[in-house]
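Justification of computing resources. Each target in the renewal requires a structure prediction run like the one illustrated here; the chain below, 357 residues long, is used simply to show the kind of job we budget for.
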Amino acid sequence: MKKHLPRTAAAAAALVALTALTACSSGGSGGTGGAENAKIAFLMPDIASTRYELYDAPLFKAKMKQLCPGCTVLYQNAGADAAKQQQQASSVLAQGVKAIVIDPVDSAAAASIVRNAQSQKVAVIAYDRPIPATKADYYISFDNQKIGALIAQSLVDHLKEKKAKGGILEVNGSPTDAAAGLIKKGIHSSVDTSGLKLLAEYDTPGWEPAKAQDWVSGQISKFGGQIAGVVAANDGTGGGAIAAFKAAGTNPVPPVTGNDAELAAAQRIIAGDQYNTISKPIKIVAEAAATVTDQFLRNKPPAGQTTLFNTPSQLFTPTVVTQQNIGTVLLGPGGALKVADVCTQTYAAACAKLGIK
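Resulting structure tokens:
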């Protein structure tokens, strides 16, 4: 025979159940519920940098699966097309995502993505590149201004040590990328006070190495042997600059900087073609972004360690990598790259010369 709860007890039980259901389905900018089976968008900007396909997306997905086994990550890459990224954002919102992690193609254009998402109570985490015009819910990256200052100062110190003659070319990142603007600001903070002449500078559309190469080729024709070194804002543009010097028959190639610690850049450094890069282990930012996303899903938005563009932010400190420390920083225990992948047959002798085994 069934026992019936008193009406008051039944009502209380119903209220508890309703409260629990509401807690699991409630949402809001800066906090979304239903974490256990949520969909999350991971929107990356381009394929010119190999990092997004090889590292950022897989690492973010792996950490997200660990934190929320039932969650689904919808990964999209915009291929350096801001309009395509807008479409991708609209598509994932239509699919019911509870959070968007976005590395914007165009930092200004991405403001509308933030507004649209937040109007639907979907949290937006800006990743690697900030969105200055509209406050995202959170921003996570390495300190881009410091990156620019570090790579430039490293080059300046090297040129002065070698008593190099001539001036510097500056190859900046995309003019539509706010992070590139921060890197550029950092570069100028070191170059402008160095006493070395800035021969010319260029903002590289879409960070495209081929465009950086074309511009540097023109500068080689113009300045010739006056070019003592090149501050390039990332490894792709640095690789383009180096290709320009090699095509022009310049030997040796002047020291060229980079940023991102891509495998090809590590090989160029070991071979002596590229002077430096920046180690900013993508695992750190990808996993931190997943952790922050999980907190938003659980209605526990984290406090920023600092504020940038009025947005709560977490900024990690990068490390300059040259031939002197590449073996320990990038290829040592816990390093981002494996010796077997970097020290292929082509680079085996150069690796051995640096004591990398």
